[in-house]
Amino acid sequence: MIKWTSTLLLLLAATAASAQPAQTFFLQGNDSFQKGAYAEAITAYENALRTGYESAELYFNLGNACFKTDQLGKSILNYERAHRLLPHDADITFNLELAQLRVVDKLMIPPPHFLGKVWNAIQYVLSVNQWAILSVTAFNLLILLLIIRLLISAHTLRTVAGYLFFPLLIITLLASLLFWVNRQEANHLHHGIIMAHKVSVLSAPSAEGTEVFSLHEGTKVRMEEHNGAYIKIGLPDGKVGWMNLNDIEKI
């Protein structure tokens, strides 16, 4: 299954200089995918990305084409990028989980405590941009309520504005906090996908380092500090180590 983006959305989302090429490559990729020419579809989708355009649909379709050609790392990478842009899309989530079933490494993720579950349920219900829109909208409505309270003489309107003020203030503060938290996480917490069939994770950023564990294609890891040709990575269970930077791709 592939997703289709309308010409209008492409024209609005891409820059004026790159909209037409992106649209052309995207449609070429879809056409090749429908014909079963998955390698050609991959080339077309990647050409669309090189124009500077990106969308959940483009990453999703590229992920599908990579999956069809048994490129597990690239398929998961692009599904993750699609999921980042459209976190609640059922097709993206399903295909990502399906691809992850083929990953050799089954990492144990410690379950969060009750308060952590509640916080995560709230934090990720909207994307970073959606929290930003909500916070700005709520703030503008808050200003409108203040204007009504201060300048409008109608008793009914003033009463309604008074009742709505504090709930809207809470929504504004909460949305602003969640936008800031998600923005900080997006800027400072980076994840990557192992692209090589198998990599050795070392105790130090050097070829002389001792192998502490190994990972396989498609595994998602936390990316930390760089040191020359090596990057420090972390796993959900607390394990850390160094690996070659060329064997991982940032989501």
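Second entry:
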Amino acid sequence: MSKRLFPVVVLLCIGMFAYAPFLIINAPYESTMGLVQKIFYFHVSTAITMFVSAFVCGIASAIFLFGRRPGADRVALAAAELTVLFGFIVLASGPLWARKAWGVWWQWDARLTSTLVMWLVFQAYLLLRRFGGPGSEKLSAAVAVFGAALVPFVYWSVNLWRTVHPTTNVVPSLDPSMRWPFLWCLAAFLLLYVLMLSARTALENRRARLDALYLALED
């Protein structure tokens, strides 16, 4: 993202997040869960953003593995960090909703367990990058591809097994009065993700150039 466009998108993102609470407040209550259902707009939006980030990381890692493009590896690293960040938000907000909706903080059902496993896979990616030593980029890239391949499994798991978690038809069947606030929140989180990915990738590009300068000085 260009330097001129970045501040404009930042302001747009701030405006979208500032307006989101008003949309959520005015959205109707869900008939069975009442007020607690409003965490849906936050929880599901971050979950979708996490899935998008996992795909970005996996695709960029595949490009690095088969195309030997260092720039793709830097995008993958930035996306992996954001996958872990948004995954943490999902895993923290989910139990808050579950406690009121199901009466428990956690259930070892298909969706929750597979989401946790996917999140740990990307944690493993970051640990490999940090402590794996020379050549860890390729090994961690393979881990990222595996993590991205888990996304469809995590998404469809609620349809394949009996689970307390709602199935994938919840979002398509939303009432129109709930769909608009949800789409607004989703767009805000995706825009935030694009900003964070752009900023983190730019930082990683600068780090790579600095490392190259250090190596040139040593030579």
